[in-house]
Amino acid sequence: MSNSPERYTITAALPYTNGPIHIGHLAGVYVPADIYARYLRMQGNDVAFVCGSDEHGVPITIKAKKEGVTPQDIVDKYDGIIRESFKEFGISFNNYSRTSAKVHHDTASEFFKTMYENGKFIEETTKQLYDDKAGQFLADRFVTGTCPKCGNEEAYGDQCESCGTSLNATDLINPKSAITGEVPSLKETRHWFLPLDQYQEWLDEWIVKGHAHDWKSNVHGQVKSWLNDGLRARAVTRDLDWGIPVPVEGGDGKVLYVWFDAPIGYISSTKEWAEREGKDWKPYWKDENTRLIHFIGKDNIVFHCIIFPVMLKAHGEFILPENVPANEFLNLEGKKLSTSKNWAVWLHEYLEDFPHKQDVLRYALTANAPETKDNDFTWKDFQARNNNELVAIFGNFINRVVVLTNKYYSGIVPKPNEYSEVDEQTIAELKAYPAVIASSIEKYRFREAQAELMNLARLGNKYLADEEPWKLIKTDEERVKTVMYVALQIASALATLSEPFLPFSSAKLQKMLNFTDAESKLSGEEYSQWDKIATRDSLLPGGHQIGKAELLFSKIEDKEIEKQLDKLEATKTANAAADKEVEPQKETASFEDFTKMDLRVGTIIEAHKMPKTKKLMVIKVDTGLDKRTVVSGIAEHYKAENILGKKVTVLANLAPRKLRGVASEGMILMTENAQGKLVFVNPDEDGVEPGATIN
Ligand SMILES: [Zn+2]
């Protein structure tokens, strides 16, 4: 593809605006899409890389209801946060739009109307799930129940997230309203259906037979399985008030199904961009020669491989995707990422803890990308990728080259003498890298591509370590000129080839090597061009002045990683507390029963662990009445010296009893916090949850 420039429309799944985005989103969709788009631009292609916020659908209305605000408030808030995260991480969209924008409402309405006028829908009155208590129809996320395909008990009315199958709400076994928890009734309503079954044969030809070899096997396999099960008509309108109004007769009070309007958002975003740039948007969606690529996560395969293509085909004026390189899921420290359980690394929080380390996260996520199976992000791996690869290999090589060039030649690239065999070999290897990395990127194998980039840095590191210019400089200055020249060519190639993966570091390195200047010294063509590395004699010509060394990467210390692990541990504890079963209430106590108990505030004045026991502590308490001894089972949770002077609640008139020969005259009231630690009764203490018993 690198021979002649081509037109590409690259889409990245529209993020849903009911929360911020986390590393799973970045790893699954946006970083791979960005690597691909940046690479294609560097090859001189015409690229429209578009995305936008998905702002319709039921979860947003549910969230708005819960928070007592409008759906618009919710989408405005998260659209802002998400935009900022993308910008911070260098996701190079040509345009980022939102589906509440007018251009999108117009585009989606037009799209629906065209299909309607061409008779592409089935209009039908059917019985749909209805919540009598809430007085509304239950579509999509308003209803949960058991998935008829895999048995997942928390499937939604439009999709089971466990097996990925797309569902009609009435397919659910034991449906339950997400609003009131009621069992829904059935009520008649009129809707427009997309007859997917009529496209079954066409999909079979186009995807199952036509893309058996060029689509990823996880994507191809899923599509094949759904087609084997047989497709059915799906309603593309809903009885809701948040969304794009159904623009045809009889559509009052109804909106387009969110998954009908959302993918049209790619088209609207392209229009918005073209308008701003003074371009024509149509070739990007209607010219047969344009290559349309959808980057998504595996939960969106059904929408991008079946529903949206059927819409495009039925409409008739649009091209179809050439590929849908969907990724599997990323887990965090062995557990599924979850927004509701706060089991995530949020991008805006990451930047607070690791400012200016966007490239490190991009690198670690790509190195571990869930390209063929679910994969795991761990903080230890993140640290190792940074310290052992970015710092120790890439950063170390660049630093040596730039520092030595400044030291020996005041930063001016030396003119080489005759190449040795090792030099020839090294230059030949260097020139092979652009094609190797390109080939992996073009196959959507970004992990492999990035690993090759690091291999090029390894080549540079090894070359310097073997040639040892810092020793040679004392004996053979002429040879050192050649060695440094070769090393500078590798540094220059790294500056260019790292751009899709590590855009911030690449920019810093290009500046360090003074690329803009190099450009004018060469032929005037754009300097940072992929293929020129293989064809040009010199990447940084002799006589070119480079800048001073700056650190590209810095070490991440253990304590920074421990802080992140502690954060996750706290989340785990909070989740465990939320899930914990509360002991049932005891038998009713009469008021008389209560007044029998003499509860006093006491101060601990002495304490020591009882010898030869694990749990028992002998405590002397000043109860105001007297100073008495109480034996308490807290020795595993407190150190004696730490409880002196503490005020506690004492049951003073508990019948005395002997414990290991010591008379205990009363009881200090304790409770257990969420971590299972016994604590003195103080309901405000961290980790003490409602329902904890006191004894
Ligand atoms: Zn399922």
Q: Give the CATH topology of the largest domain.
A: Rossmann fold
Low-confidence stretches: none
> Can you identify the CATH class of the largest domain?
Alpha Beta
The percent of residues in helical segments reads 40-55%
Strand percentage, roughly? Answer: 15-25%
Distance between the termini: 74 Å
Hetero groups? zinc ion
Radius of gyration: 32 Å
* Overall average residue pLDDT: 93
Biggest sheet strand order reads 19-18-17-20-23
The number of strands is 25
Whole-number total of structural domains: 4
CATH architecture of the largest domain: 3-Layer(aba) Sandwich
> Can you tell me the CATH superfamily of the largest domain?
HUPs
Helices and strands, with pairings:
Elements: E1 7-12, H1 23-42, E2 46-53, H2 58-67, H3 71-88, E3 95-98, H4 102-117, E4 122-131, E5 136-137, E6 143-146, E7 155-156, E8 173-177, E9 185-194, H5 200-209, H6 217-229, E10 234-235, E11 237-238, E12 255-256, H7 258-277, H8 283-286, E13 291-295, H9 301-315, E14 330-332, E15 335-336, H10 347-353, H11 358-367, E16 375-377, H12 379-409, H13 421-442, H14 446-467, H15 469-472, H16 477-497, H17 503-512, H18 515-521, H19 532-535, H20 558-579, H21 591-595, E17 599-609, E18 617-622, E19 627-632, H22 640-643, E20 647-651, E21 657-659, E22 662-664, E23 667-668, E24 670-672, E25 678-680
Parallel strand pairs: 1-2, 1-13, 2-3, 14-16
Antiparallel strand pairs: 4-5, 4-9, 6-7, 6-8, 9-10, 11-12, 14-15, 17-18, 17-20, 18-19, 20-23, 21-22, 24-25
Helix pairs in contact: 1-11, 2-3, 4-7, 5-6, 7-9, 11-12, 12-14, 12-16, 13-14, 13-16, 14-16, 16-17
The protein binds zinc ion.
